[in-house]
């Protein structure tokens, strides 16, 4: 039978979120109901609330989650009841042109659950990133569940979005390897994860760039060997500072974890000749970029964007959880505080003030 639980919903643009009753249907073919154990408070959820992603209100928010499979629908073979899973928002199809050419991390036909969760009055909810896990239970496609070794859900659940995006931007997209120099612009959760990924890969030097000196101090815990305080510096001065730390050449890989034209230009010019720029910060639709085409031609290299860290959850999540359990990946340092679900609105405010890397709802 359908289950009624409490969930955090954005009912209209810009309004404070509310904790209300939601109805989770029984899983249909290819679907799974998950008992949610944790859910990180991500900037993406705030963007949903503010209308920055769409206007399909009401939204059931939450997506950085770990939990336990409670029910499976007909035909589900990926997971079983009782499995500990990290949720992802890229259930691959296995049949599109990207999947068929052996690049499923670029799958062009990712999917979510077919059924909708609803408000108590039957109003259909749009689940954030197809997950909607600021709730005691959620309904997802089976392919959105990645079985991993049981761990602290508040920690490993963060792999479901921002942490994977940052680590993957470095290792998967940027192809950071031993001895390469890396600069990361923006040291929030995604940027710090990119630093951690670069450290895992053996990069050196690893340069962290941010306005906030406190964030730069924290960045050292994730592998930064050098820091640049960009507050008060012009774009050219930031570029010069990176070049000074890399023998006058620029970094082999520069990762823009902010996603605005100014930081992308910094990334473009702060890389070495034939270097790589990776955009993982998410721009807003109105942003435009102007850069001389002759500079693009003359500097060579790669200009790349990173979708979800170009990850393949079934490959990457178990590996990263294993590294965490070995003590080689400090995922626990991303968890600033553990909160209850009725504190999400307050957590948004803390996030906006830059006081936390991640607030995590724990059930």
Features:
2 domains, Quinone Oxidoreductase, Chain A, domain 1, 18 strands, 11 helices, alpha/beta, Rossmann fold, zinc, six-stranded parallel β-sheet, globular
Question: What is the compact description of this entry?
Answer:
Belongs to the zinc-containing alcohol dehydrogenase family. With 363 residues, this protein is an alpha/beta fold.
Q: How would you sum up this structure, described in words?
A:
This is S-(Hydroxymethyl)mycothiol dehydrogenase. InterPro entries: ADH-like_C, ADH-like_N, ADH_Zn_CS, GroES-like_sf, MycoS_dep_FDH, NAD(P)-bd_dom_sf. Residues 28-149 form the Alcohol dehydrogenase-like N-terminal domain. Residues 189-324 form the Alcohol dehydrogenase-like C-terminal domain. The chain is of the alpha/beta class. The protein folds into two domains: 3-160 and 330-362, Quinone Oxidoreductase, Chain A, domain 1 (Alpha-Beta Complex); 166-307, Rossmann fold (3-Layer(aba) Sandwich). 26% of the residues lie in helices and 25% in strands. The chain has eleven helices and 18 strands. The protein has helices spanning 43-50, 97-100, 153-156, 162-173, 189-200, 213-219, 235-244, 261-270, 293-299, 313-325, 344-352; strands at 3-10, 18-24, 31-40, 59-60, 64-72, 84-87, 118-119, 126-127, 137-141, 145-147, 182-185, 206-210, 226-229, 251-256, 271-279, 302-305, 337-339, 359-362. Strands 3, 5, 6, 9, 10, 17 and 18 form a seven-stranded mixed beta sheet that branches. A six-stranded parallel beta sheet has the order 13-12-11-14-15-16, sandwiched between helices. The protein has a five-stranded mixed beta sheet with strand order 7-2-1-4-8, with no helix packed on it. α4 (162-173) crosses α5 and α7 (235-244) runs parallel beside α8 (261-270). It is globular and about 65 Å long. The two termini are 22 Å apart. The model has no long low-confidence stretch (mean pLDDT 95).
């Amino acid at each position: 039978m359908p289950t009624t639980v409490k969930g955090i919903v954005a009912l209209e643009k810009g309004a404070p979120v509310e904790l209300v009753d939601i109805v989770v249907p029984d899983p249909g073919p290819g679907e799974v109901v998950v008992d949610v154990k944790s859910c990180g408070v991500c900037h993406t959820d705030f963007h949903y609330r503010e209308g920055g992603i769409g206007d399909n209100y009401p939204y059931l928010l939450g997506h950085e989650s770990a939990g336990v499979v409670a029910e499976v629908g007909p035909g589900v073979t990926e997971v079983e009841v009782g499995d500990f899973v990290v949720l992802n928002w890229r259930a691959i199809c296995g049949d599109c042109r990207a999947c068929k050419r052996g690049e499923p991390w670029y799958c062009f036909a990712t999917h979510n659950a077919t059924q909708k969760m609803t408000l108590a009055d039957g109003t259909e909810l749009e689940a954030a990133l197809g997950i909607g896990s600021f709730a005691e239970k959620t309904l997802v496609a089976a392919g959105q569940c990645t079985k991993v070794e049981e761990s602290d859900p508040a920690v490993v659940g963060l792999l479901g979005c921002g942490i994977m995006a940052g680590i993957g931007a470095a290792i998967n997209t940027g192809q950071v390897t031993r001895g390469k120099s890396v600069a990361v612009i923006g040291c929030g959760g995604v940027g710090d994860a990119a630093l951690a990924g670069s450290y895992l890969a053996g990069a050196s030097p690893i340069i962290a760039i941010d306005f906030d000196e406190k964030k730069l101090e924290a960045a050292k815990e994730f592998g930064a060997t050098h820091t640049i305080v960009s507050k008060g510096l012009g774009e050219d001065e930031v570029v010069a500072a990176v070049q000074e730390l890399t023998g006058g050449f620029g970094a082999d890989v520069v990762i823009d974890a902010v996603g605005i034209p100014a930081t992308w230009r910094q990334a473009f010019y702060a890389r070495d000749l034939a270097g790589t720029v990776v955009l993982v910060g998410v721009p807003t639709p109105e942003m435009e970029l102007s850069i001389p085409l002759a500079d693009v031609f003359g500097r060579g290299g790669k200009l790349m964007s990173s979708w979800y860290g170009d990850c393949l959850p079934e490959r990457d999540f178990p590996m990263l959880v294993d590294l965490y359990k070995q003590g080689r990946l400090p995922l626990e340092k991303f968890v600033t505080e553990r909160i209850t679900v009725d504190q999400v609105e307050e957590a948004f405010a803390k996030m906006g003030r830059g006081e936390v890397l991640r607030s995590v709802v724990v059930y």
